[in-house]
Amino acid sequence: MECSRPMTKLRSRRRDEASRRARKVLGWLAVGFLLGQASLFAVLESIRPDLRDPEYGIRLYQLRDRLGERSKSGPLVITLGSSRTGMGIRPDAMGDLPDGAVVFNYGINSGGPLIELLCLRRILAEGITPDLVVAEISPVSLRLDGEDAIRTDRAYYLRRTGLADVDAVSRQAGRPDFFLGEWTWDQLTLSYSQRSFLLAIEARRWLPRDSKIDVRWRGVDPHGFQRLPNFEHHDAVRYQAILAASEKSVAKHYSEFHVSPTAEACLRELLETCRDQNIRVVLVLMPESPSLRSWATTTVHDRVNGLLDGFKRDYHASVVDSRDWITEDGFGDTEHMTVEGAGRFSQRFARDVLTPLLQNPAGK
Amino acid sequence: MLFCSLQYLVFFTGVFVIHWLLPWRQARVWLLLAASLFFYASWNEWLALVVGVSSVIDYLLARGMDRFSSHRVRKLLLFISLASNLGLLCYFKYANFFLQSLEAALHRAGGTASLPLLRVILPIGISFYTFEAINYTVDVYRRRIRAERNLAHFVLFITFFPHLVAGPIVRARDFLPQIARPKRWSWPRARLGAEYLILGLVKKLAVADRMAMMADPVFANPGSYGTAAIWLAALAYALQIYCDFSGYTDMALGSAHLLGYKLAINFDMPYSAANVSEFWRRWHISLSTWLRDYLFIPLGGSRGSEWQTTRNLMLTMILGGLWHGANWTFIVWGMVHGSLLVGHRAFRRWCGPRPALRSVLESVPGTAVRIAVTFLTVTFCWVLFRATTFEAAYVMFGRMLSWRAGLPGPLAGVSLWWTMAVMAVCHMVARNGGWRRVVSRTPSPVLGFGYAGALMIALTLAPEGAKGFIYFQF
What we know:
Strand content of chain A: 5-15%
CATH superfamily of the largest domain in chain A: SGNH hydrolase
Structural class of chain A: alpha/beta
Number of strands of chain B: 0
Oligomer: heterodimer
Largest interface: A-B, 32 and 29 residues
CATH architecture of the largest domain in chain A: 3-Layer(aba) Sandwich
Order of helices and strands of chain A: HHHEHEHEHHHHHHHHHHEHHEH
CATH class of the largest domain in chain A: Alpha Beta
Structural class of chain B: mainly alpha
Number of domains of chain B: 2
């Protein structure tokens, strides 16, 4: 009896010690995990925007390099848009522009008015103020952008949305609270939600050789133009094969065409931001292949023109319709130009649009 | 509902919170029972009914065995139980395999008959819960345990969701008393559960699924890949299958501990085994011991002549191979392992009167060589296990043994070498309980941050898209 009492005490003390240690370990585990996610969040928000949104971040580093090279007084032209812009505007093919202007292509794959707005806001937040913004207008993204786009490609928006963007994106999402909840959860598990970009940028060799995740930014040149191997030259056989599938998907969008209210709201916000910052804006309908143009109905034309007329009236924005500037042989598919086609377009765009605008800074 | 999915996290968190909030023991049992049936029904609700009905039948038969003292009646009841369990297993898992094999044999003999195939879905985890039910009824028949009187307890033993779909194969004598015992919250146990869960996640997400990216394309099309890629794929598969299955088991053990239950350890550093016999003592322990206790020993074990022992070993391993799947590759894989076990027995006997040779083999370099040879042998056998046909296995072996040019591996070798190095270090530390010593001496903040780091690595390395567990198909 006397012997068993100290033994019981010893056992009880050991149990208490083990319990205390277990609580500590679990507590430190939770703290460590949250600290880890918080540190990653801080890195993504401040010093490594490419890990949040590689297509935007990698272009930002290149833009900084280009700005470092330009003469101090040279104006800066930023082109915003989707892959049509990304693969369509080649600053290197534009030759010398007035006052040594620097043109940088910020065309982001799957982009539309919302992504254009986000890019502009981010660039301004970096302290870079362009003198001229060229914003792409594409009928398909006018229909799809905003709520529809966020719903169909939720992961795309959740991953790329930073703290500064979350209000703008959630406003465009159908259910802002729901989007905000998902976004917050993703930030609490950043090492999981952002893993594809973390690996693709920091440890590419840990991904399969045939992984296509970095194809969206691997071919971006120092001026932001996106060069893809399949789009080096026009391939008639490949082009014909693409036509049928393309017609089907475009017909679906054009048959029930309307301008999404969220897309219009984003474009208006973009134009207002530019007006507030004293930045001139050119809205550009990018080149389309003759086939793609032939599929557009009168409704599409009328609604797009109506929208652009409103922008001209409300914001005094310039509009350039370059849809028929390039012939079929300048396209890799119905909407994306080949490198050679992009070169032809860029030369004409520089000569007919940018040079006159830059020589006449009256609008500023 | 995979253990490493968001759905499981939500499901488990709900069950965990309600379980510990409920003050009544029986209510907790009912909660776990409902959760387990819901868990199984999330795969297929009709097949949940099959598990439920077969469990009730086994419950009644076992009660009958307990009630009747007549040996003949008890034997009859055991026979009915075995027939119903094995019948269910054969119907769902092997019927088409037997029909196809019979048809192929008839065709070879010149016949032209075409046998109809059954349109059945394989109930997930059927091999596991069938073996659990068998060990229960056999143990009741042998009077090693009393039949469970509480139906809910018995059905929970069979369907407890952490072990339901891929084991470990639980023994009734270990698990049923745990259900009856009152549960008290314990922090050390919660910590153990969390450690197991993190370890399982690391194994599954950071190793198994990543190695699958290296192995799967090569096994799908071995003829296109060069010798180096084939070897890398074989090694990657050895790591994949271990980390996939033991990762699942760790998560099962972790989930069970967090609910106050202890499941049997299923793996004990199998790739540190210095011979094939030791490998089977460390690999899928719950199946190995089940086969030993309910097949090998009843067949006579190693008590008879050398020939009888060889026969028993071969039979046990062939049936063990067949347990994994209805395919001749699994049967041959079992035969190869049986032959290796027989060969090892003979070699050990031959070494007996040669102390000099024994001391060389048991020295540190000798042990290292034996571990390497065992690992390569087992890896070689995994090729047979993984290949869907003998032709594919033949191509793999051919390209492993002679230099052939071809595509490079689908993943750069760096991830395999890093993973192998980390696994080798972990095996060395963990062998002989070294891991426990390391953990007990590490300060709590370092340990907590270490676990957090491991969890973050697992989450970062997780491939896109959830990948099921390999052993779910068995």
